[in-house]
Amino acid sequence: MNFSEIRNKFGRFTVGIAGAGGLGSNCAAALARIGIGRLIIADFDVVTESNLNRQYYFCDQVGMKKVEALKANLIRINPKTFTEVYEVKLNMTNIPLLFKDCDIIVEAFDLADQKELLISTVLTSMPEKYLVVGLGMAGWGNSNTLSVTESGKLFICGDQVSEISEELPPIAPRVGIVANMQANVVTEIILNKFDK
């Protein structure tokens, strides 16, 4: 399958991204570049200067809602990828509603309780969906510890150990690697698991 055929297939898929921070913004950029047909992105936060060390935003976007800034950036990357954004804090009720049309959902939260909420909601309320999670990307170096673990329709990207802390902050290289691992897993799922 050549890239034109691959891109044509990608155009038929919808991917949901829960969170527009380091993982979500970089994963969305990679998916737009390969031609995903539709992205549904949800986040309630604003771009801050401290986000610029790892998130796909620019200095002049500080203060903007992340979903609006990211949508503008994705249109610049690939205007053919339809980007639908929701400025909302996700919960057990709205997750199934917002992501019901998605073929694959990407979990891209910073906080453990948010990750747990999304994973639990998708696995119990939407078990037919593929779910790609980022877990363990804090700090720097040790790239060889980052991997993908698969369990049914659940895929976990990262080292599953490195939790974010003051001493182990999230910075661009490892966060970017895991975000692109997530995009790569989405690519693999589309090309290998679907006959659309």
How would you characterize the overall build of this protein?
By secondary structure, this protein is an alpha/beta fold. It has a single domain (3-193), classed as NAD(P)-binding Rossmann-like Domain (Rossmann fold), CATH 3.40.50.720. The protein is built from 6 helices and 7 strands, in the order αβαβαβαβαβββα. Strands 3-2-1-4-5-7-6 form a 7-stranded mixed β-sheet, with helices on both faces. It is globular. The two termini are 14 Å apart. The mean pLDDT is 94.
CATH structural fold name: Rossmann fold
Number of domains: 1
Anisotropy-based shape: globular
Major beta sheet summary: 7 strands, mixed
Distance between the termini: 14 Å
How are the SSEs placed, and which strands pair?
Elements: H1 3-10, E1 14-18, H2 22-34, E2 38-43, H3 66-77, E3 82-87, H4 94-98, E4 104-107, H5 112-125, E5 130-134, E6 147-151, E7 154-158, H6 172-193
Parallel strand pairs: 1-2, 1-4, 2-3, 4-5, 5-7
Antiparallel strand pairs: 6-7
Gist of the model:
The protein has 6 helices and 7 strands, in the order H-E-H-E-H-E-H-E-H-E-E-E-H. By secondary structure, the chain is an alpha/beta fold.
